[in-house]
């Protein structure tokens, strides 16, 4: 059963959930989502004997924050410290993956392994295909007009369906969840004082932690290219491309993501997730 928690950092209150016991696995959500994007993975991880933790970053979900100077990296460090977690496996999608990479570069001894899904990389290149331009232009138009409802729908097309696919490709509960998570983010008060993090693109080869790279073949092409670059540059990376899947596979195809995640976790600790065997890691 999931337990909720709240952590005060500065004048912010981070909202989180945790489930299970054992080696800690910390989930970092995408920039168009919140901690709920990991619901299926949290359940699967906890059932297999791990401690699953997820939280909403500032500007997302149930977390509240005034417009004060902050850094997502500092917030993550503070959260781990507050929960007495020395080292963890970090699972991040998109911007959450970029945060995980930055954390691993700054605190290599605190990262047991990384799972990076359609990951961002601080300072990474960005170039759109011609076939991706239309959805991005529609997104910019909705943003310029201040039409948040339309912006949410366009971003669902871009990130859930995939920029080169038909709008509405992913329907049902997954779409409803995406629209709800992203609507909350779009309607949050703007945070203007976030501190920039150092460029990580030129340093990804320094990340020595075991890493599982996942990307959907319906995602933006530049994210697929980043995935390929990381698979070549990161010394202990294993790369998987999911067919027919876009940017948020955790809610689109949890049946594909969960087995990969659990297999990776078993491999990281030699197939044993018992508390006694891993008490030096958490």
TrEMBL record:
Q: Name one GO molecular function term.
A: hydrolase activity
This protein's UniProt keywords: Hydrolase
Top-level taxon: Bacteria
A Pfam short name: Abhydrolase_1
- Asked if the record carries the keyword Hydrolase, the reply is yes
Q: Where is the AB hydrolase-1 domain?
A: 24-254
InterPro entries in alphabetical order: AB_hydrolase_1 (IPR000073), AB_hydrolase_fold (IPR029058), AB_hydrolase_sf (IPR050266), Epox_hydrolase-like (IPR000639)
UniProt GO cellular component terms: membrane
Protein name per UniProt: AB hydrolase-1 domain-containing protein
Organism the protein comes from = Devosia limi DSM 17137
